[in-house]
Write a structure and sequence with these properties.
heterodimer, A: about 450 residues, alpha/beta, 11-stranded mixed sheet, 10-stranded mixed sheet, 21 strands, B: about 250 residues, 4-stranded antiparallel sheet, 9 helices, about 35% helix, globular
């Protein structure tokens, strides 16, 4: 860790707090959280590869860049249409540009009774108690997460979703996060809170995209609680440009009989770190922690996940699949932690990666820590080239090499994208995969 | 001009010579059968003709309509009109039969400078061909060969042949793993594709298949060479006498 990399953040923090320009400066809980966040980030600094959880992801490029706080609104943003995964019929759409909610681009539609969707900044005004009760309260084990603390210090805006007991939001909520930096490198630290009340149901789709040439650092922190009997579908597409650094730390608690269904597709970004912690803390809690990644050039994508089975009778399935081209790199570190009394845990993990060039690299680290004796846990992990026989079979039917290869990679990834339960959304993710493959340079 | 002219073809796998000078000439519309004991090089010949990796051609040539195909990529060979029905069709999970056939047909059309086949027309043709081969349309929505029974796989091979309309089809042990009913269905499918322009090379271990797909010429392959050629009666003779008679020749 180099001190100089921390210096700009420190100076910016001091300047922003002195000017009172960070939101919620009148709220003691938030001021104190920011202070603690900055202090802890100072202690930890940016992790080096010597830190076990960051062994395979080197942050030198990020540290070398001086980021400016994205405090000024990019009002001149020339955007004809906000990119969308679900098209114009999307019922609820929240748009964030450089981490800030843009009401004029958003359309939240009619929400059912008991459902609230608003920006973090709005919630600080309208629902300060909700945030005071939940922010930094759902997260657990965040002490050694420097980016979490950096987010606490700088958090300004983000998405707040609160679905009351029994409410169902039928249509997906699409959240577009646009990274747009043209002149200078920008950093922003969105903070999100999603609470799905008892027996409620909602689908959230995050769509991260980018514009502009300058580097951006999007340092997201999301806290999620899925209360007893609730169902939360949470799909995420990282499709930013090569100028983007994307760090996403997520803490989710899944309670009795609740279902947390997540899928993350990463195709964009210069460096992406997805770090979800999912704690199954009520019996019959069920989680899907699935994802796919496609990286080429010098892109790097790190999925470091933790699933905790804290009580008996919980279930989780985790499948990550990816394909790497050029000098693309990926990391999959999946930890499964079964507590001593979490009997009858059912946990499955699978990581499969296709290496499409001999300079591509995947580092995989499955980790099973099981302290209960009556459990069913499995994990599997493969990395390899495309199989020769199917490739020859396709070519023998006249299908050219490049197309045959694309068909095989697509089908390989489609298998995990099929895990997305909402059909329209599944298609949007498949289309993204197809689009990435059609731009193959090999 | 011959459809296929194989001249003194020699090929090795990992340095060991399997084809030791094969000569064979097939005219348009002719059906030739190659029989022979296990390990005689029958399947190797099929693989070398279609361009599978792992075989080194060490001598001779194979001309398709006068043009050497040995330097061509497998997809180029398909585009000029060569087709191999695999002995062991390969499973491709996640790619449906429909997508696979559509991509194959259109790839070949594209290579020949033709436009994509109209989607409606493609579907209609596919439906008709499925019916002829007793293939359920449901199978078209399944992944290529994935979970297919032995018979389904072989019928799917013939369906592909029908869709791609090759000039020369090489059938590699198409009878293996088939019961008598499936054998009849597959053979009927193949026979429907016989025409004055289309040639076939049927590779088989047993005479049984040749009761259904009756060849114009029969060749016996032993130890990497064509040891004997004749009419369809040669197959019957082999069935009676076995391949032992050629064993001595080989040893000598």
């Amino acid at each position: 860790m180099s001190e100089s990399a921390l210096q700009p953040f420190h100076e910016q923090y001091t300047a922003l707090t002195n000017a009172g320009s960070l939101p919620g400066s009148a709220l003691p809980w938030l001021t104190s959280l920011r202070e603690r966040g900055m202090a802890r980030f100072d202690e930890l600094g940016f992790p080096t590869p010597r830190v076990e959880k960051w062994k395979y992801t080197n942050l030198r490029a990020l540290e070398r860049q001086v980021f400016h706080p994205a405090t000024t609104m990019t009002a001149t943003l020339g955007l004809d249409r906000v990119p969308s995964l679900i098209g114009e019929q999307a019922g609820h759409r929240a748009v964030f540009v450089n981490g800030r909610f843009r009401a004029e681009m958003s359309s939240l539609g009619r929400l059912p009774k008991g459902a609230k969707v608003m920006s973090f900044a709005q919630a600080l005004e309208a629902e300060p108690n909700l945030l005071a009760d939940e922010i930094d309260q759902i997260a657990e084990g965040q002490d050694d997460q420097p980016f979490y603390h950096l987010n606490c210090a700088f958090m300004e805006d983000g998405l707040v979703v609160h679905v009351a007991e029994g409410a169902k939001i039928e249509e997906p909520i699409e959240v577009v996060y646009l990274a747009a930096a043209d002149d200078e490198a920008l950093a922003y630290h969105p903070r999100h809170l999603i609470v799905a009340g008892k027996n409620s149901e909602a689908t959230l789709v995050e769509h991260h995209v980018g514009l502009g040439e300058a580097n951006t650092l999007a340092n997201h922190v999301t806290e999620i609680r899925v209360e007893p009997g609730a169902k939360l579908h949470h799909y995420k597409m990282n499709a930013e440009t090569d100028a983007a650094f994307h760090v996403s730390t997520l803490h989710a608690r899944v309670q009795e009989n609740a279902f947390y269904d997540s899928f993350t597709l990463t195709t964009g970004g210069q460096l992406t770190r997805n770090e979800p912690h999912v704690k199954l803390e009520g019996s019959y809690a069920d989680a899907r922690l699935n994802g796919a990644y496609l990286q080429r050039g010098k892109q790097h994508c790190d999925n470091t996940t933790l699933i905790e089975h804290a009580v008996p009778d919980t279930h989780c399935r985790e499948i990550f699949k990816g394909a790497l081209e050029g000098k693309g790199r990926a990391v999959f570190a999946g930890k499964l932690h079964v507590y001593p009394d979490a009997q009858r845990t059912d946990g499955n993990q699978l990581s499969r990666c296709l290496l499409l060039s001999n300079q591509a690299e995947i580092d995989t680290k499955p980790e099973l820590e099981i302290y209960a004796d009556d459990v069913v846990c499995s994990h599997g992990c493969t990395a390899g080239e495309l199989e020769k026989d199917p490739l020859f079979y396709l070519r023998s039917r006249g299908i050219p090499y490049a197309l045959a290869r694309r068909m095989m990679v697509e089908s390989f990834l489609a298998e995990v994208v099929q895990e997305i339960t909402t059909e329209d959304l599944r298609q949007a993710f498949l289309d993204r995969v197809t689009d990435w493959l059609s731009r193959s340079d090999q | 001009m011959a459809m296929l002219e194989i001249k003194d073809l020699r090929a090795s796998i990992e340095g060991s010579e399997i084809l030791k000078g094969v000569d064979l000439s097939i005219n348009p519309g002719e059906v030739h059968a190659i029989m022979g004991p296990n390990g005689s090089g029958k399947s190797t010949l099929a693989h070398v003709l279609t361009g599978r990796d792992g075989y080194e051609v060490t001598g001779g040539d194979a001309l398709f309509e006068g043009q050497s195909i040995l330097e061509m990529e497998p997809e180029e060979r398909a585009a000029v009109g060569l087709f191999l029905a695999f002995q062991y069709p390969v499973e491709i999970p996640g790619v449906t039969m429909t997508t696979f056939l559509k991509e194959a047909v259109n790839s070949i059309r594209k290579a020949r400078g033709e436009d994509d086949l109209d989607a409606m027309k493609f579907t209609k043709q596919l439906r008709e061909r499925c019916k002829l081969l007793n293939i359920s349309e449901d199978m078209m929505r399944r992944s290529v060969n994935t979970g297919f029974s032995g018979g389904e796989k072989k019928r799917a091979e013939v369906l592909q042949m029908a869709a791609l309309e090759p000039k020369l089809a090489v059938l590699d042990e198409t009878d293996s793993g088939l019961d008598i009913d499936a054998l009849k269905t597959v053979s009927d499918g193949v026979n429907q594709l016989r025409s004055a322009e289309r040639s076939m090379l049927v590779i088989t271990h047993y005479q049984r298949l040749l009761n259904y797909i009756v060849p114009d010429h029969v060749h016996v392959m032993v130890n990497g060479r064509i040891a004997k050629s004749g009419g369809k009666d040669l197959a019957l003779q082999l069935e009676e006498e076995g391949y032992a008679q050629f064993g001595e020749n080989v040893a000598a």
